[in-house]
Amino acid sequence: MLAMQHPNSSGSPATSTSSFPANFTLLQKPEVEAVVRNGTLPQSSPVVAGFSMTLGILFNVVALIILAKAYNRFRRRSKATFLLFASSLVATDLAGHVINGALVMRRYSDGSAPDSTNETDAFCLFLGGCMVFFGLCPLFMGCAMAAERCLGVTKPLLHAQLVTTARTKIALALIWLVALCVALLPVFNLGTYTYQYPGTWCFIRVLEGTEGKDLAFVMLFSGLALSSLGSAFVCNTVSGITLVRARLKKTTCSKSRSTGSNDTEMVVQLVGIMVTSCICWSPLLVFGLMSALRSYSGSLDSDRATYRRLMITGVRMAACNQILDPWVYILLRRAILRRIYRITKRQASLKGSIFRSTRWEASSFHITEKNCSNKI
């Protein structure tokens, strides 16, 4: 939904076809120059973007309903902390999807274009800040959830003493505060948000005129995001290994089985969140850092069109994260996992019985044939 493309918004008056997808019809050069001078773009109905935004809102609302019901059921158990984190993550995703999507669609429907994609204004400052804030918050929350589960799985007694609902709410407030402080750095002239190709979205200045403070800003943003993903990977790996070891011990206590089942469900969901975040956010983080480094060193001119396309791909994949995250809670629930396990077990048993039956028939045929030979 983000970075919806205009047919003629290449970020400069040039009409090089390398800056446009093959399925767009280009205007003639005089018309392009007139469009850029007037600061307007041809009107186009963003039906696909609106449909994508509607689906994202629907999926997030469904996930919130599921998590709210689960939270009411497990309010006084160890799972309540995880559910509070998860509900906050989905609510943040929903807010980011609606706010960023509405701003981009408004920009697109207005048909206005900046004289250069390297410019900025109040609208761009707000949109860029929202991009950074709603980008960091889910990654921070995913890392915090993984750390909380790792502590709960490996040190349950310490987890019971340290982790409470009040402290979880304080941690959430700190996460939002840190993300907000990072997003507001350009307000204090510590970095710059600029319009990005094709002029319908804003992000840190990484493609044109990148300065030292811009490079430091994008390194801070990418470093925090990648560190969160790496920390979540380590915590989820430790949790998974611990659960596998506990499973192999074959505990017979029913209470332990229930707790282990809850832990398994939560870790599976965390792995789903981590994989989704890595796939969706890594391209934008890596491409943005690469673009800023090359732009700052002055070696980007020959590959600027390529990096523009990479940045568009990255931001579109990042936008998909807010649509895919709810499916983790919708599909990876314990009831669904049990159903998948039973179906898999049934299929494995069926294949095993067919194999044993075939083997028995072959063995019987061999014995019968041998007896007949002996009689002869």
TrEMBL record:
Residues in G-protein coupled receptors family 1 profile domain copies: 59-329
Organism taxonomic ancestry: Eukaryota, Metazoa, Chordata, Craniata, Vertebrata
Cellular component, GO annotation: plasma membrane
Protein name per Swiss-Prot or TrEMBL: Thromboxane A2 receptor
Membrane topology classification: Multi-pass membrane protein
The entry's keywords: Cell membrane, G-protein coupled receptor, Glycoprotein, Membrane, Receptor, Transducer, Transmembrane, Transmembrane helix
Keyword Transmembrane on entry: yes
Protein location: Cell membrane
Keyword Cell membrane: yes
